[in-house]
Write a structure and sequence with these properties.
The chain has 731 residues and is of the alpha/beta class. It is built from 21 helices and 32 strands. Strands 11-12-10-13-14-9-15 form a 7-stranded parallel beta sheet, with helices on both faces. Helix 1 packs across helix 11 and helix 7 runs parallel beside helix 8. It is globular. The mean pLDDT is 90.
Length: 731
């Protein structure tokens, strides 16, 4: 008997040896059912051997081989093996993460059969009049003599399943399973409608990518908001699809881009599948299978869509490549953009990274020649750059957080029958509830953060752990009933503006108002009807949308973003400011952006206002170079959590002592911590972290690999929940 190496979806960085029965083939990447402890588990074959480190008599046999071929394409398999090694995460959990839920549960990797009723030879010879006492059976048999019937067609013919079952009992009919034949979209592929007229920059970008689309290359498409990046994507895909190849398009959040999806479907006479959290498990598996068989031309999805197996992948497009949602923040902490670039290399295909505000790392890679850099500096059509103004809030009387000058400009734009966006990245009614008598503030005991007040639902909610409780009638500390809301959220802004502008429709777009299925699409439909309207939103409203009637954008409260301990905070604010500003004046109308702040002299604001994102990015790259921050060094963070605030720092201190022995041989290794995380408590657990830094990515990987092997021998590691984050984007 041969020994096979099998990984399981367990947090153990190892494979398990099993015996393969003689009548079973070794299929790398196939699922098997195996005995594991006292239960049966599903595993994936990753290798085979003639020998084992254990006596063969101690090894258990595989119970069942589920698949007759690998679930992974060869290139996807290589990408996942690399990712498990690079992100220092158990291979079993990585491979299972990449599969749809139903496949993790052991369901067949094929569409469920379509059942059809067919007539038997006896049924063909039977006398219909013999069934006159059973008219439904008679009717059913007559229908089968014309053609077979699928089960789902029965009710439409006013027949019932019982009649067919009776015919089956009499031997006159039989139930057969069938599988639909694969469809070829390539045979009917066409490009629909008229293309938009391209400007010179767009045509140049498309020509450059098309001229080199048979091999790997990274194209950074930096285009200001409204410059027509989506049109470039579509034109690049025309070439790929016309050759019968498939395309993967990654977007940050699927709910933000219904307009983009609609444009892809309108442009191409080819199947477009969308992968997002709203799909049920069966729908997700169906998309996975269609892509694998080559039956879908384009898959558009969030980061997990990267693991879709394609029969003939021709290109990958990553829209808003700078967006932090491409980084998985729980479990296996991969970065979909970085992993997509590796996967494109494995497939030997081009990958396009698009953004109005590219990540600093991407711009640095473009500067150093790793990426091809393409720029779109002109807004599509006749749109003009928006005028930008800073409003100094010091000493101003505010109404729901709005300065008088901002309210005046809103009235001017609304009276001209235009639309106004107010951006406030804080949902809920108010960020805190305070007792006016004694100063008590409602705080989540599990996170030691203030509860957010949600007035319409009469609830206090923690936006960190999602716990909630009813609004108290009186202060639990002094008994006073004088509880007041402190600060402004989108819900309060909505409430106050309805009072100030009673005749103007208001649309609020945040997680609270778009949680119901179809709610976002309805809001966008209302906005596109045109006419005067106030739009209130969090960053959901800042990305990927085209609002032709918006002529004014107001940023309500940005001061918190200007002073942060996170070195990436300035980059995130600059990206958000640029994205939000780009919503104004997109269809030939002059737009303006008003930013409220108590710190109008802040250098970051002055740079963005007068020189733009590109100048900010150049400064940021130089600053990071001078202080040895990414992309000039590489980071990894060990995080640990406990319930008593003692075990986690002790564990990380022991880990630091272990790393110090390595630093004695490698002076370039830099260690910071252990220190409390920026959010020191969440969901009842105290959080600590240890940062390590090295100028060599390869050397950092060696250090992490050696360290992880030794952690398992540390008794303290069993007393805490610890994780490793390679290339973290949050401190």
């Amino acid at each position: 008997m041969r020994v096979v190496k099998i990984v399981l979806p367990v947090p153990l960085d190892r494979s398990f040896d099993y015996l393969l029965p003689e009548d079973m083939a070794v299929i790398i990447g196939a699922r098997v059912r195996v005995p594991f402890g006292k239960r049966e588990a599903i595993g994936i074959i990753v290798g085979s051997s003639e020998h084992s480190d254990f006596p063969l008599s101690q090894l258990k046999k595989i119970n069942h081989l589920i698949d007759q071929e690998s679930l992974f394409t060869p290139t996807l398999w290589k990408s996942l093996l690399w990712a498990a090694s690079y992100y220092q995460f158990p291979l079993g959990e990585v491979l299972f993460h990449a599969l749809p839920v139903l496949l993790r549960q052991g369901k067949p990797a094929q569409e469920p059969p379509i059942w059809q009723w067919q007539i038997t030879e006896a049924g063909k010879d039977a006398d219909l009049t013999a069934l006159k006492r059973a008219p439904k059976q008679q009717q059913a048999l007559a229908a089968l003599r014309h053609s077979h019937l699928y089960r789902h067609q029965i009710s439409a013919l006013d027949l019932n399943e019982t009649a067919f079952q009776a015919l089956k009992t009499k031997g006159l009919a039989q139930l057969q399973e069938s599988y639909p034949a694969p469809t070829r979209w390539q045979d009917s592929f066409a490009i629909n409608g008229e293309r938009l007229k391209l400007n010179t920059e767009q045509a140049t970008a498309i020509g450059a990518i098309r001229s080199d689309d048979k091999k790997f290359g990274v194209w950074l498409l930096e285009g200001i908001t409204g410059s027509g990046k989506t049109e470039v994507y579509l034109s690049v895909l025309e070439n790929i699809l016309s050759e019968g190849r498939q395309a993967l398009v990654l977007v940050p959040e699927i709910g933000l881009t219904p307009q983009t999806i609609a444009r892809f479907r309108e442009r191409f006479n080819a199947p477009v599948d969308v992968v997002h959290s709203g799909l049920n498990d069966s729908e997700r598996l169906a998309v996975w299978l269609r892509a694998r068989r080559g039956e879908t031309a384009i898959v558009i999805g969030t980061r997990s869509a990267l693991f879709t197996p394609f029969k003939n992948l021709g290109t990958i497009v990553i829209d808003e490549e700078h967006d932090s949602s491409y980084k998985q923040q729980e479990g296996w902490r991969y970065h979909a953009r970085d992993l997509a670039i590796l996967h494109a290399r494995q497939e030997n295909i081009p990958i396009v990274l698009g953004s109005a505000t590219p990540a600093i790392e991407s711009l640095y890679n473009a500067q150093s020649g790793k990426y091809h850099h393409l720029r779109l500096t002109l807004r599509a059509g006749h749109a003009k750059p928006a005028s930008q103004y800073i409003l100094d809030l010091k000493g101003q009387p505010l109404t729901a957080g709005l300065a008088p000058a901002l309210l005046k400009r809103m009235r001017d734009h609304l009276q001209a029958n235009n639309q106004v966006i107010l951006f406030l990245n804080r949902r809920g009614y108010a960020p805190a509830l305070l007792c006016h008598e004694c100063g008590w503030i409602a705080e989540c005991p599990r996170c030691e953060r203030y509860y957010t007040l949600h007035q319409s639902q009469r609830m206090l909610r923690c936006h960190h752990c999602d716990s909630q409780k009813p609004i108290p009638h009186q202060c639990p500390k002094c008994g006073s009933t004088h509880l007041v809301a402190v600060g402004v959220g989108t819900e309060q802004l909505d409430h106050e503006l309805a009072r100030l502008f009673p005749d103007t429709p208001i649309t609020r777009v945040d997680r609270d108002t778009t949680s119901r299925k179809g709610a976002l699409e309805q809001h966008l439909s209302d906005i596109h009807q045109g006419g005067a309207r106030i739009l209130i939103g969090t960053q959901m409203l800042a990305k990927g949308h085209h609002f032709p009637d918006v002529t004014m954008v107001g940023l309500i409260d940005v001061d918190g973003a200007l002073f942060s301990a996170d070195f990436r905070a300035a980059e995130r604010f600059a990206q958000l400011y640029t994205q939000v500003s780009g919503r104004a004046g997109r269809a030939g109308k002059q737009g303006e952006v008003l930013l409220q702040t108590h710190h109008p002299e802040h250098p970051l604001l002055q740079t963005l206002l007068h020189q733009g994102y590109e100048s900010f990015a150049r400064q940021a790259i130089e600053e990071r170079k001078s202080v040895f921050l990414p992309p000039f060094t590489y980071h990894a963070i060990f995080r640990a959590e406990d319930h008593d605030n003692q075990q986690a720092p002790q564990f990380l201190q022991q880990l630091r002592e272990l790393l110090e022995t390595m630093r004695n041989q490698d002076a370039a290794l830099w260690i910071l911590g252990p220190v409390p995380a920026l959010q020191a408590k969440r969901s009842g657990r105290f959080r600590w972290q240890l940062l390590i830094q090295h100028p060599s990515r390869a050397r950092l990987q060696q250090i992490l690999h050696t360290t992880r092997e030794k952690i398992t021998a540390m008794p303290q590691s069993k007393k805490v929940k610890w994780t490793l984050d390679v290339d973290p984007i949050e401190s």
